[in-house]
Design brief:
The structure holds two protein chains of two kinds. Chain A is an alpha+beta fold. Helix content of chain A is 19%, strand content 20%. In chain A, 56% of the residues are buried. In chain B, helix 3 links the parallel strand 5 and strand 6. The longest helix of chain B is centred in the middle third of the chain and has 16 residues.
Amino acid sequence: MTAHDLGERIDGTPTHLVAGYDARIGKPFPFGATIVSGGVNFSVYSAQATAMTLVLFDHGAQRPKAEIRFPDEFRIGSVFCMTVFDLNYENLDYGFRAEGPFDPGRGLRFDASRVLTDPYARLVSGRDVWGAEPDWSDIYPYRSRVLSDDFDWEEDRPLRVPAEDLIIYETHVRGFTRHESSGVSAPGTFVGLREKIPYLRELGVNCVELLPIFEFDEFANVNSNPETGERLLNFWGYNTVAFFAPKAGYAATGPLGMQADEFKTLVKELHKANIEVILDVVFNHTAEGDERGPTISFRGLDNQTYYMLTPEGYYYNFSGTGNTVNCNHPVVRDFVLDCLRYWAAEYHIDGFRFDLAAILDRAQDGTPLPNPPVLEQLAFDPVLRDCKLIAEAWDAGGLYEVGHFPNYGRWAEWNGKYRDVVRQYIKGEPGTIGEVATRIAGSPDLYWGRGSRASVNFITAHDGFTLHDLTAYNDKHNDANGERNGDGGNDNYSWNAGAEGDTSDPGVLRLRMSQMKNALTILLTSQGVPMLLAGDEFGRTQQGNNNAYCQDNELSWLDWTLAEKNAELLRFTRALIAFRHAHPGLRSGEHARGTDYVGSGFPDLSWHGTEPWQPDWGPFSRVLAVMWCGRHAKGGTVHDKHVYMIMNPHWEEHEARLPDLPAGSEWRLFADTAAAAPGDICEPGAERPLIHPWSYLVRPRSSVILVEGDVDPR
Amino acid sequence: MTSQVDLREAADETVIAISGELDAAASAGLRDRLIPLIPGSSMIRLDLAGLTYISSAGLRTLLLVYRHAQAEGSAIRLVGIRDEVRFVMSATGFLALFGIEEIR
C-alpha cells in the first residue's frame, strides 16, 4: 500500500444510526447506488415527495430486511442521499418508497405501498432468465442492485469509423442466436452474439445496431396467439424498465447478476473485430403505461417531472404506448444525458438510434419545439462527441420530420423515404425514377448541407417485412400477433412475385431471389449509410408477419440453416459489402455537386439511361444508370475507379449503351442480378471484361454493376 | 458461503488451492490472506479445481491477486478450473485476462 491509501477517507465513517444501520449524509451525485469507501451511496431525486425510504432486501428475498428512512438532513434540494455502511452489496436488492400526495388531477401519483425501482439502477434483477415465469406475487418485481462497475477494457478505444464508411447490421440479441441452428454455447445471449463475431467479420459489416438492451419485461404483453393460445411475449423490448441496466435475460450470466460484464465483454470483442456498436434506445416512453399501468419507478417517484401530462393530469400518448416521457423537462434532460454518457463511457458504445425521436423535440405540453433543448444538449455533449446519433425522425403522434429533424449538424436520420421509394421502384411502380435517383444520391433534397452521412438508408428494418418477405408477400400476415391482423403497417410497397407466400414455383422463386439482389445492390451502392436487417443476407422469413414484436419463436429467430440453403444470396451480399468497402467513391459523406471539380473529364455524379448521358425522367421510364466518378471519391481526396450501376425494374429487357471511358480503360462486370450464380457477382478486383465493351443487355428486373478496369494490352 | 485456501510448496513452485464458493463476503479477506503467500519470482499455480462458484466480486479479487503476483515477477497460472466456473469466466471476459494452464 502506498502512503496515501485513497480507500481511507475522512468522510468514510458513519455519523448516524438509522433503523439499525450505520449511515451518513450521502452525495447527491452520481444518482443511483455507488460503491464508496466502507459502504454504498444512494441518491434519488423527487421534487414532490414528502419523505423517502431506502428499502433493502437480501437478494431475491420476499420481505425487506430493512427500511431506512432518509433523515430530513439527508435531503439536498430535491435529492435524497445517504451512505449506508457495511452492506454486503453483492447480496443486496434495494429500492425506494416515496411518500407524497395521491392527487392525479394535479399529476401526483405517490403510492408509498410500492417499492420503486431506482431510475438510475445499473443492475436489475427480477427477469434474470428470459421467459422464466416470474413470481407474480413479488412486492418488488424489478429489483435495483449495486454494480461493481470496474472493468478491464485493456486497450479498447472507440473505433470512430466515419459514419459514411459504416455498414450497419440491425439485429436482436436474442433473435440472432436463439434458434437451435445457431450452434452457439449459450443461445440467445450476449455470449451467443459474441460467438458469431467471425460470421459478422466474414459478412463484412462494421457496425451492429442492437434492438433495445435496456432492462425490460418480456411479459409486458397482453395478447396471445389466437391459433395456439400461446402467451405472447414482448420480444422486441421497446418498453424500458431501467435505462441504465443491461437486460439480464440477454446474458447467460444474468442469473448471477453479471450481465454488465458480459455485455461489456461483447462490446470489447466486437471492437477488436472493428465492429462498432449502436444501441437502439427508447426515451419516448417507459414500461409504466398510462394511469392503468403498473407503478414501477418514475410514476411513483415524480410523475409530474418524468411524464407529459394533460392539464387534467392524464398521460399524453405521443408514443402510442400509453405515456410519453417528458424529455424536455430540465431534470429529464439530465436523465437522458446521464444515461447516454453512461453507456458511452462505461460500455464504450459507439452510437445511439433513438426510437420515435420526434418525441424528443416536443415541449412539456407536447408542442413541437423549433430548438428542443434535449436534442441540442445531446448534439454538443462533450462525452458523446464521437457517438453517432441517429433519429427515427417520427412519432406516433403524427410528427414526421424526416429531412428536417432538429440536427445541429450532428444528427443523422433513419431515411424512411429511402425505404419507401426504393421499394416502389424495385417492384416497377411508374413515376418513381426521379425520386429514386435523389435517394441513391444520398437524398440531397433532405440533407443538403448535412451531407449524405445524415441519411441512414435502409430497405428493411426490424419494423416491417424482412427482405425475403418483401418479395414474397403482397400483404401483411399478422394473425399470430393476436390482434386480428390489425397491427403493423399497411404501406409495405411489397410484391410477391406471383404467388403469396410459400411456393415451389421455380420461376417465382428465381424472381424473388433476383429482387432481393436488386434491393441489396441499390442499398449498398447508394450514398449514405446503409443498414441491413440481420438475416436478410440469407433470406430470413417471418412468414409475412410485418410486426413480429411479440413473436419469440421461429418467426423471429434467425434460422442459420438458411445460410446454406440461400448460400447464393449470402455470397452475393458479402461480395456487395466488400465492393462498397473497396470503393470510397460510394461513400463520399458529402453530396455530389454534379460537376467535374477535379478535372477528371467526368462529373462526380452523372445519370444515364439506355443511352449514356441521357437519363429518361419520364413517368413511365424505369431504366436508370448512375456513374460515380472515382477521381471525385471523398471529395477528390482519394483515388477510386469509376463505378456504373444500371437498374432495370422493368419486366422487359433493355440494351444499355455505356458511356465512354478514357483511353486505356474499359468497363468490367462486377455484378448482374439476372445472371445465374456464380456468374451473378465476383470478388471485388476480379471483374470480367464485357463481351461488348460499349453496351450491356440489362435483363428484365435486374441490376448491373460495372467498374472501370484497365484494357488488357494483349 | 465460504471459501478455503490451501498452500503447497515444492522446490520450484507454489500451489495455492482455492476451494468452495468465492463471493463478496468470502472475497473480503481473501486478497489479504493470499498476497503474503505469494513469493517473488517463482512459478505459482492457483488451483481452482475445488472452486464451485465465483461471483462478480470473487472474479475481481482473483484478478487483483493474479496481477499482484505478476507485478512481483512471478509466473502465475490458473489450473483446474471447473467447466461451470470457466463458462462464467469466459462469458464475463475474465478468462482471457488470466494465463490458464490446461491439464492434459
